[in-house]
Design brief:
- This protein is an alpha/beta fold.
- The protein folds into two domains: 192 residues, Rossmann fold (3-Layer(aba) Sandwich); 250 residues, Rossmann fold (3-Layer(aba) Sandwich), CATH 3.40.50.720.
- The protein is built from 16 helices and 14 strands.
- The strands form three sheets. The chain has a six-stranded parallel β-sheet, with helices on both faces. The chain has a six-stranded parallel β-sheet with strand order 11-10-9-12-13-14, with helices on both faces. A two-stranded parallel ribbon has the order 7-8.
- Helix 16 links the parallel strand 13 and strand 14.
- This is UDP-glucose 6-dehydrogenase.
Length: 445
């Protein structure tokens, strides 16, 4: 099938590459000529494990190309995926201007009986409005609009595309559903068909629920810190109940990225616009917003203040296996630390420059950061931190405080570290480990 994907950001690029790998002829269309040139030359405008390999293979097989000529790209295809951004508007709602621009281009240049597939996250009712726009503004009643929300996780997006839990298709006609079934026929996943508004709602409801689950376990972790309980044991006990499940029961510095912060706020605003309160989602957002401050207060409690203290940060991106800094918890944490009078040194394997907090000094490895710091705060659980040489970290030191903001290290392994070296280990919702004798684990393995 000939498919044009409008928008080559994170979702658009993964979608275009995945569709080409499935054997479709794909054009990735974008108004950014420089990005298009980079992609056609084999470069990558973003970092995602495995994506460059499938793009290279599809390009070699003649199944994918990129173009900044949007009208020509649309005329060459029969299916049009819209994967442009829907950023947060000033009032908290989703800004749909890029989606509307794309639908206008399709209205002007789309082939007869084409199918418009909306991948962008849009509020319920958007598909209806787009279809009406096509009919009234462009007299295009021959084009069908489908909602096909994405559920890609950054750092795992390629696997998520090829092995989805479900494929959601919201459409008003069996013919459109059949086209979508043909597009995804090589994927072994259930195809859930429903009306467009329900499909659009599924995306928001899913993201809001996951955000609430993260904030809930972070709230529980705060309580564990004050009551000397171990959140690992609590989460294990909760997650063993199939009604709850263990996914997203990992306490830490909070969620970030391009989806959860934006989508939860849009969900709240959606409710306000029709006088339907969303107090659970509002609470989740408030808890998450306070996570960087909560972590910083752990250090303030240790020292009485941060003036002239030297802090190190391990990990800056909002999650591992991604170079995305959007809404990363490290950003407000660093700003709060600097405002409190601390100096901040940081290391992240994918951030060598252009960090948005200008007074944070970036270094090329975690050992340099540790050597310059009174305390190190782990903000992103990069796999390489699991391979740290603790003797090198502690070389020449009389003491070091490590605040593990992601609970990346188990208490059992850190007991060995704190027993051997003068390291004090703090984590989220778990017992403090001081150099010397340590408390017994509350979890049986």
């Amino acid at each position: 099938m000939n498919i044009t994907v409008i928008g080559t950001g994170y979702v658009g690029l993964v979608t275009a590459a995945g569709l080409a790998e499935l054997g479709h002829h794909v054009i990735g269309a974008d108004i950014a000529a420089e990005k298009v040139a980079t992609l056609n030359a084999g470069g990558m405008p973003l970092w995602e494990p495995g994506l460059q390999e499938i793009l290279h293979r599809s390009r070699h097989n003649g199944l994918i190309r990129f173009s900044d000529d949007i009208p020509a790209a649309i005329r060459a295809s029969q299916v049009y995926f819209i994967a442009v951004g829907t950023p947060e508007a000033a009032d908290g709602s989703a800004d749909l201007r890029q989606v509307e621009r794309a639908i206008d281009d399709i209205g002007k240049h789309g082939r007869s009986d084409g199918v418009v597939v909306v991948k962008s996250t849009v509020p319920p009712g958007t598909g209806d409005a787009l279809e009406k726009r096509l009919q009234q503004k462009w007299e295009r009643s021959d084009l069908q609009v489908v909602s096909n929300p994405e559920f890609l996780r950054q750092g795992n997006a390629v696997a998520d595309f090829f092995h989805p839990d479900r494929i959601v298709v919201g459409a008003s006609s069996p013919a459109a559903c059949e086209v979508m079934a043909q597009i995804y026929e090589r994927l072994d996943a259930p195809l859930q068909t429903c009306d467009r508004r329900s499909a659009e709602m599924i995306k928001y409801a899913s993201n809001a629920f996951l955000a609430m689950k993260i904030s809930y376990i972070n709230m529980v972790a705060n309580l564990c810190d004050h009551l000397d309980a171990d959140v690992d044991a609590v989460a294990q006990g909760m997650g063993s109940d199939p009604r709850i499940g263990s996914a997203f029961l990992r306490p830490g510095a909070g969620y970030g990225g391009s989806c959860f912060p934006k989508d939860t706020q849009a969900f709240i605003t959606m409710g306000k616009q029709i006088q339907v309160p969303m107090p659970l989602v509002e609470a989740a957002v408030a808890i998450n917003r306070n996570r960087p401050r909560d972590l910083l207060q752990r250090l303030v409690k240790e020292w009485g203040g941060l003036h002239r203290r030297k802090l190190g940060i391990w990990g800056l991106t909002f999650k591992p296996m991604s170079d995305d800094l959007r809404e990363a918890p490290s950003i407000p944490f660093c700003r709060l630390a600097l405002d409190a009078g601390a100096t901040v040194a940081a290391y992240d394997p994918l951030i060598g420059r252009d960090y948005p907090v200008k007074d944070v000094h970036l270094y090329s490895d975690p050992y340099q950061v540790a050597a310059l710091s009174d305390a190190v705060v782990l903000m992103t659980e990069w796999p390489e931190f699991r391979q740290l040489d603790w003797e090198r970290v502690m070389k020449g030191r009389k003491s070091l405080l490590l605040l593990d903001g992601r609970n990346q290290f188990s208490l059992e392994e850190m007991k060995q570290v704190t027993h051997r070296w003068p390291l004090t280990y703090l984590s989220v919702g778990r017992p403090r480990l001081n150099p010397g004798k340590q408390p017994q684990s509350t979890i049986k393995h």
